[in-house]
Amino acid sequence: MPFNRLALILVFVIAAAAVTVWLAMLAAAAFSLPQAATALVPLALLAFVLVRLLRDRTGDS
Length: 61
Prior knowledge:
By secondary structure, the protein is mainly alpha-helical. 87% of the residues lie in helices and 0% in strands.
């Protein structure tokens, strides 16, 4: 893969992550969620990814 393409993808991924964090901060402030609730969202996403990964490796669909 050419370096220019890799750099462009990396810039877009970092920008998308920054926008996601910014929107999550706005949503948390608007709904006045406690910090524990906002910490559960990334943990739930991580658990979802791990379950999908384990199901893929064991062949259980």
